[in-house]
Amino acid sequence: MTDVLVLPSGLLPDAILSITRTSESPPIAEHSIRSFLYARIRAAHEGTVADAQYREDLLFAACVLHDLGLGSLAQGRTRFEVEGADLAAALLTEHAVPAADVDQVWEAIALHSSHGIADRRGLLTYLTYTGVFMDAGRFTDGLDDGLLRQVRVAYPRPAGDRSVRDAIADHAARSEAAAPPYSIGAELLRQRRAEANTAN
C-alpha cells in the first residue's frame, strides 16, 4: 500500500466529502473518513483489493456517507442507518451512479451496525461494517500498526469522544420510528434515559 491517506478525487468523491462535512459534526465526519481508511487497510491485509467485487469508489461512498442519518439532512423519520442509506442513494443517483451500484451502497450503509449480518452480505457491506468498527477499536488484530497510526495521526479521535453515540441517541429520540425496538438507536436512547434517571 503506497499511501493509505490518499482519498479518491473527482466530482463524485468531492460531492461525497462536501455533503458529509457540511451536514455532519466534525467528529462524525472524521469518523466516517477514518472508517474508509481503515476499511482500505483491512482489504489490503486480506488481499481482497484484487477481488473482482472490490470497488474502492463504492467503498469510499459507503464508508464516508454511512452516518448521513446522524446529520442535519436527516428528518428522524426512520432508524438512522436507513435514513442515511436513503440520503446516500439520492446523492449517488443524482450523480448518475448505476442503480445496481447505488443498491450495494444502500445495503452497506443500512447494515453497517448489524453484527452477524453485515459480514455475510458481500465484500462491500463487510468492509464498510469492519471499517466502522475498526474506528471503535475492533477487528485490528494482525494489522500493520504503522498504517493504523498514520490514520490516527492524520484524523485524530478525541479521547473519550461520544459524538457518534450521542448523535444516535439524539436521532432515536426524535420519533418512535427512529428507534424501533432492539435497534442500536433504541438501546442507546434507553441507556441515556437510564443514566438520567440514576442521576436524578
From TrEMBL:
It comes from Dactylosporangium matsuzakiense. Residues 29-118 form the HD domain. This is HD domain-containing protein. The lineage of its organism: Bacteria, Bacillati, Actinomycetota, Actinomycetes, Micromonosporales. It holds the Pfam family HD. Gene3D superfamilies: Hypothetical protein af1432.
